[in-house]
Design a protein that fits this description.
The chain is an all-alpha fold and 109 residues long. Helix content is 78%, strand content 0%.
């Protein structure tokens, strides 16, 4: 949530991810970033290093902001994909749910 809150002043000011309605952008950004933090936490725990999380963050910024967003010209794309997209949130939720269910099953053994 700290990561999401860090970006919110820029979103509110319209300087970052301003393609969606403000309420939707703030909500979905918080959800996506929180889920992505779960993935990064898992990578940190599995590897014992922060380097994989740093690489995910850098790769995410590169691919999402510099490549995929510039390739997308439809006005609905920000609502579906990217840092505020519902498809991104669903994919991350599946990954995080899979990890935690797998971890719970291992802990029960």
């Amino acid at each position: 949530m700290i990561w999401a809150c860090w970006h919110m002043p820029l979103i509110i000011a319209g300087l970052y991810q301003s393609e969606t309605k403000l309420w939707y952008g703030l909500l979905m950004f918080a959800i996506v970033v929180t889920l992505l933090s779960g993935v990064m936490a898992w990578l940190r725990m599995v590897s014992g290093s922060v380097i994989p999380a740093l690489m995910i963050h850098a790769s995410h910024n590169l691919f999402d902001q510099s490549i995929f967003q510039t390739m997308s010209t439809n006005e609905n794309v920000p609502y579906l994909a990217g840092e505020q997209g519902v498809i991104t949130a669903i994919c991350l939720a599946i990954i995080v749910t899979y990890y935690f269910s797998k971890k719970r099953n291992q802990d029960e053994r």
